Structure of M3 family oligoendopeptidase:
Amino acid sequence: MANYEPTWDLDTIFSGGSSSSELQNYIEVTENLLSELGKFVHQFLPPKSPEQTDQLVVIIDKLQETAMHLSEFGAFVSCLSAQNVEDKAAGTLVAKRSELEAQYGNVLTELDQKFIQIDEHVWDVMLKKPPFANLAFVLRERREKVKDKLDLDQEALINDLAVDGYHAWGQMYDTVVGKMGIEVDGEALSVGQAANKLGTSDRGKRKEVFDKLQQAWVEQSDLFTETLNHLSGFRLQTYKHRGWDDVLKEPLEYNRMSEKTITAMWETISKYKGHYRKFLQRKANLLGLEQLSMYDVGAPIGESEQKMDYNEGAQFIIDQFEKFSPKLAEFTKMAFEKQWIEAEDRPGKRPGGFCTSFPHSEQTRIFMTYSGSPSNVATLAHELGHAYHQHVMNELPIMNQGYAMNVAETASTFAEMIVADAAVKNASNEREKIALLEDKVQRGVAFFMNIHSRFLFETRFYEERKQGTVSTECLNEMMVEAQKEAYVNSLDEYDPTFWASKLHFHITDVPFYNFPYTFGYLFSLGVYAKALEEGSDFEEKYIALLQDTGRMTVEDLAMKHLNVNLEGPEFWEYALNLCIADVEEFLELTS
């Protein structure tokens, strides 16, 4: 078995970490590109005929080069700040990134304003010609979105004020969480390390860790009430001035998804939740409990707790990918060999996991904390799915690489499912099969119940926030109510501070960082079923689907590659029936 290092290599991108001279030079180049792009956009005169496009060709080239540099720099800063929350120089670079992104946002806003000055006929003819034809979807999308926004000066002002009035609140949250920790058995743990302990088979230990985490979040909850209220307040004020009433407008547009689709998805899920209620009750019985508490939901059944060290986990993932997609397996092996993954279990790291891409160097990096549990193996496969998605996008123009979160989660969940499904099928005995099947069904609990509680909470929180600041007590109550509804009253103890502990509520990229996960899970089931039907013939079709994720709506993507309608219940029922089959098998094996 190969011996892979569980720490990533960032020096192949910029050597020297947060004090890298290479990085400083790169930042200067990026600043110059941004400045030059700004001048070109400012001098740009909207064409009066489809032939007058020379200026715009130059601008699009410079726009893509600038975007590539900003993404490269931004990804590197994310890696630095995640690997060591005490790295103050990385904190300075985070601020620099926000500043440059604001400048870039202002340049794009000015360009977008000039797009809407171009006559409709001229615009349509122009987009049918190279080099614009290949970018037509993205360019049309930008032009349509700007019609919903304020004028140039006001949008530029919002971008500038967002650096310290909006993004800074998200950075404040990250800083505070990075310094948090609890002590378990005399060992000082970060909140990320402590959360991994909730997967233990010892219920007393789970409760102890859960209670200590609750205490830690309660101690900081007043501060996180401030961050959440100010983040949402900034968004709502921006929406108000733009004349937007619906808080879902931005996340749905960002995810290139219709309201009919999200409604059909949640309504169908709600109809099938009874199956998962039975699963949770059966799990409680197996654990000798009347009802599960929140800290029991992810607990393993019985005393046996399978562990895979990092190398075993890596080899297992590669082997399973190989059976499904040789190209995915080959990419994954390379990612391990080249140390693109930071998985070491150590203090000082940010909690959670992510995958970030470096479009200029055509590399990716994965961040997580690996302690050997089945869920860790699944998370690693999940993030490798993200990485592969970016890998197949590298040959496209960067403007066509901007796929939204919901379809990003499709590739990651697809990869995770390959590993989970294979693990169940390859189980050596019934006891192992039950444990692995339970871990697989657990994903349904996460996507259909946990994620749904986040969606319900955030929807109601924004409505409440429109009336004024929401108190800590009210946030706790709203969180518990959302969990009770989403889990169909299946639990006897909930997690009132979940709104504080879940990073996704405090991310400034886009609100409602929740429903795309559920969409991705169910959509990937459809992709997975297609792959099972077609076998090795599907690999190239899968790559083609991924490459289209940045240049069409999800409804068009599903129709083109799967021939399904996402705005009706049929597809969602089909996908859910695949999930329910796992639940029924689990109930049968444990009866």
